[in-house]
Amino acid sequence: MKVLGIILALLLAMPVVVLAVPVVALEPDEILDDPVLEQRARDLSKVIRCVVCQNESIDSSNAEIAREVRLLVRERMVDGDTDQQVLDYLVARYGDFVLLRPPMKASTYLLWFGPGIVLVLGMIGVFVFFRRQRAAPVAAAPLSAEEEQRLSHLLGEPEETRPQEAGAENAGNGTAGRQ
Amino acid sequence: MTQRLLFLLPVLLFVVLAGYFLWGLSPDRDPQALPSAMIDNPTPDFDLPPVPGLDQPGFASADLGKGEVVMVNFFASWCVPCRAEHPYLTDLAEQTGVPLYGINHRDKPEAAAAWLAELGNPYSRIGADAGRGAVEWGVSGVPETFILDGEGRIRYHHRGPLLGPLIEQEVEPMLRALRQ
């Protein structure tokens, strides 16, 4: 029991441990002197994909190209670009792929709303299912004689009662014979 | 009747899912392939110095789009696929006569010079890129190759080595079409 408790505690603590380790690839020479601008660059770096690492932001990737884009983001910010202008610059060169958060537009509506649509369809399905069940409760048709017989057979009554019944019949016969 | 059809729903779902899996797991599909956003873009803004030690000029945006179709190839001496595509590129440039401009990406000048001395130099100009050039061109790694039309517009972009079948199927027809 104690062991189980320890294992459970470790499992619960796992996400905390994992999340507590900062994943940063930023190198000291990249950091800007202006802390406000640096924070903006850090925040923006988290939503820019490193194009050679599939699913890592440039903030956490130490690929050469990620470093290059980090430097570029900072340079453009120092030059007065807004966050959106920096993103637009990158999208013009690498496409929407460079954004970790897909933009909302006609070609991505299905991506954004698909799960919601599936949920709504599912809820409608469940609703209709239960409503139909309530509206038309299955009227129990009376069992036919044959079914009745089979049921009592399945319930195991015949095996126990038949000999007795037979006995009773015999007894009846017997008495009848005696009479 | 509709009740009966409802029983077919799982089968239908299975077929749809199986279709997706078939597509997703197909060996012909490269999940890492990413479409180029550069097609039809004008010449990127760049100005690359020559590689020190090579007596070949670098080049800049202004050198492209002067009425001539040009191929631009990103390469590096440390890049193995570049070595693989090198003979194909050399042949292509020789046979078609289309100028091939090279961008030497993140390389040591002496290593680049040695590499070209060993394998031959098919490039008519070579610019040295410390990294920013690649971002301007929307390049994610080496090798990558572009074809620009006479107006300097990017008409073709390939990520990865440009090898035989690809040259026959895509590059040569594109060059022929552009030069007409």
Automatic annotation (TrEMBL), chain A:
Region (Disordered) residue spans: 142-179
A biological process term (GO) from this entry: cytochrome complex assembly
Biased segments, Low complexity type: 165-179
Domain CcmH/CycL/Ccl2/NrfF N-terminal span(s) in chain numbering: 16-155
Residue ranges of the TM segments: 109-130
CC annotations in GO: plasma membrane
The entry's keywords: Cytochrome c-type biogenesis, Heme, Iron, Membrane, Metal-binding, Signal, Transmembrane, Transmembrane helix
Keyword Transport: no
UniProt KW Lyase keyword: no
MF annotations from Gene Ontology: metal ion binding
Function: Possible subunit of a heme lyase.
Family matches, as PANTHER family: CYTOCHROME C-TYPE BIOGENESIS PROTEIN CCMH (PTHR47870:SF1)
Family: Belongs to the CcmH/CycL/Ccl2/NrfF family.
Name under which the protein is recorded: Cytochrome c-type biogenesis protein
Automatic annotation (TrEMBL), chain B:
GO terms under cellular component: outer membrane-bounded periplasmic space
GO biological process: cytochrome complex assembly
Places the protein is found: Cell envelope
Biological source species: Pelagibius litoralis
Keywords, comma-separated and alphabetical: Cytochrome c-type biogenesis, Disulfide bond, Redox-active center
Protein name listed in UniProt: DsbE family thiol:disulfide interchange protein
The organism's place on the tree of life at top rank: Bacteria
Keyword Disulfide bond applies: yes
SUPFAM superfamilies: Thioredoxin-like
Transmembrane segments: none
GO molecular function: antioxidant activity; disulfide oxidoreductase activity
